[in-house]
Amino acid sequence: MPPSADPRLIPRQERLLAELRAAEQELSGQDLHARLRSGKGAMGLATVYRHLRQLQQKGLVRCRHLPSGEALFAPTERDEHHLTCVDCGSTVRLAHCPVHDVHLHDTDLAGFLPLFHTLEFFGLCTDCRERQAGDREP
Q1: Which of 85, 86, 95, 135 pairs as cysteine with 125 (C-beta 3.0–4.6 A)?
Q2: How far apart are CA 57 and CA 54, in angstroms?
Q3: What CATH number has the domain bearing residue 103?
Q4: How would you label 23-45 residue by residue, b for 16+ Cβ within 10 Å and e otherwise?
Q5: pLDDT, tens digit, for every residue of 10-68?
């Protein structure tokens, strides 16, 4: 069955998921709303966020929060992880998933059914470290 023909999804969820899959990078709820607010099947911002939450609960969408508080969404089949600067917010995508082959034992799961994982690293980028070091010099 093609991913866009998931029987668990309603048309609006299918449209959101298709937009996320077509995007080359993660999108914010605002970005998705801007793409979907006109034309057939237009959606309001609250509807976009409600359906994103439902897609997360189905294990089809993951969410990543930036230090600014902004949430970015992507389909879970895109196994991406990032390094994010806590000062300027710049983000670098990791070339591979460092935990891709990690398997949890049934005893560790405590009855949970894993749907997806996220892994985020936060730190300071080179430019911010250099700027901060310059701020400390007399």
Answers
A1: 85
A2: 5
A3: 1.10.10.10
A4: beebbebebbbebbeeeeeebee
A5: 999 999 999 999 999 999 999 999 988 877 778 899 999 999 999 999 999 999 988 88
The DSSP result for the chain, as a single string, is: --GGG-TT--HHHHHHHHHHHHSSS-EEHHHHHHHHSSSTT---HHHHHHHHHHHHHTTSEEEEE-TTS-EEEEETTS---EEEETTT--EEE-SS-TTTT----HHHHTT--------EEEE--HHHHHHHHHHH--
Could you tell me the two tokens for 50? 């409600």
Its domain, for residue 71, covers 3-136
Inter-residue contact 86 to 107 (CB < 8 Å): no
Instruction: Identify the bridge partners of residue 123 per DSSP, sorted by sequence position.
Output: 85
With 0.90 as the threshold, say if the pTM is over it: no
Q: How many domains does the chain have?
A: 1
Determine the Cα–Cα distance for residues 95 and 89; give it in Å rounded to an integer. 19
